[in-house]
C-alpha cells in the first residue's frame, strides 16, 4: 500500500508539474526510505506535507505572479531540503530503539509544513510582510524573513494539523507529545524565518528591489547575506533543529 501511494503521488506530481523529474526521483527515494524505516503511518504524515504544499502553491496563482506550465513548482533541492531530515530521523528510529523518534519525526514534518503553509498563505496577505527581526520594516512578498499575521496563524494551524494526524495514525499516544510536536514544529517555522532574514543570501537590484534570484535583476547592486546559505539550506537547518529539539524535550 505504501509503495502504491508513493507511485500515485509520483505520477500526479510529474503530470501536474508539482515536481521536476529530479524532484519526483528524490521524493520517491525519500518516501521509500521513510516507509521502510518508519512504516506506513510515517509515510502518510510526510505525504500530507507534500500534498498540502503542492495544493497551496498554486492557490491564488494570479496574486503570486505564478505562470503555470513553464516549469515545475519544486525541484530536487527543495525536496531534499524538506524531506531528508525527516527521513534521517526515520532511519535512526530503526537503528536506535528506545528514543521518542516519532515525536522528533512529527515535529520535523510539522516544521516543514508550517513554513510552507506560512509562505504560501502569507503571499496572499493584503498587508505587506514585515521582517521578523525588524517588524517595523516591510519586505516584498515571498522574501525569506518576511512574516504576516495570516501566514503566521496558518503556519501554527498547519503544525497542529500534522501533529494531530500523526497522533491519529499512532505515531504518538500522549497528549503532551502531540502538543510538543506541534509547538516545536511551529518554532522551526520561526527559526526558518529568522535564518532567512539574517543569514540567507539576497540581492538588491538597481531599482532598490530585494530579490532572492539575481537573474531577475536588470542591474545587480549589492549581495546581502552569506552566498552559500540559500533557501534550501535554511529549510534543512530549521527542520533539523525542530527534530532535534523535539527529541531532546521528549527525553527530558
From TrEMBL:
UniProt membrane topology term: Multi-pass membrane protein
GO CC, one annotated term: membrane
Keywords, alphabetical: Membrane, Transmembrane, Transmembrane helix
Transmembrane annotation, as ranges: 24-57, 78-97, 145-172, 178-195, 233-251
Location(s), subcellular: Membrane
Similarity remark: Belongs to the TMEM19 family.
Name recorded for this polypeptide: COG1836
The organism of origin for this protein: Conexivisphaera calida
Amino acid at each position: 500500500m505504501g509503495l502504491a501511494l508513493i507511485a500515485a503521488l509520483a505520477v500526479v506530481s510529474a503530470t501536474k508539474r508539482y515536481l521536476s523529474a529530479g524532484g519526483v526521483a528524490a521524493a520517491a527515494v525519500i518516501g521509500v526510505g521513510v516507509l521502510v524505516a518508519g512504516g506506513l503511518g510515517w509515510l502518510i504524515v510526510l505525504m500530507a506535507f507534500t500534498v498540502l504544499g503542492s495544493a497551496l502553491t498554486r492557490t491564488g496563482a494570479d496574486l503570486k505572479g505564478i505562470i503555470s506550465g513553464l516549469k515545475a513548482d519544486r525541484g530536487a533541492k527543495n525536496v531534499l531540503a524538506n524531506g531528508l531530515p525527516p527521513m534521517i530521523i526515520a532511519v535512526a528510529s530503526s537503528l536506535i530503539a528506545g528514543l521518542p523518534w516519532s515525536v522528533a519525526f512529527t515535529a520535523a514534518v510539522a516544521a516543514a509544513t508550517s513554513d510552507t503553509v506560512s509562505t504560501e498563505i502569507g503571499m496572499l496577505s493584503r498587508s505587506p510582510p514585515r521582517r521578523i527581526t525588524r517588524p517595523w520594516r516591510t519586505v516584498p512578498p515571498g522574501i525569506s524573513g518576511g512574516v504576516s499575521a495570516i501566514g503566521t496563524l496558518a503556519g501554527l494551524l498547519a503544525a497542529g494539523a500534522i501533529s494531530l494526524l500523526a497522533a491519529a495514525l499512532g505515531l504518538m499516544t500522549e497528549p503532551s507529545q502531540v502538543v510538543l510536536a506541534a509547538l516545536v514544529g511551529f518554532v522551526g517555522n520561526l527559526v526558518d524565518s529568522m535564518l532567512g532574514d539574517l543569514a540567507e543570501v539576497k540581492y538588491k537590484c538597481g531599482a532598490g528591489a530585494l530579490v532572492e534570484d539575481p537573474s531577475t535583476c536588470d542591474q545587480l547592486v549589492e549581495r546581502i547575506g552569506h552566498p552559500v546559505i540559500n533557501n534550501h539550506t535554511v529549510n534543512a537547518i530549521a527542520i533539523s533543529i525542530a527534530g532535534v529539539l523535539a527529541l531532546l524535550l521528549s527525553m527530558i
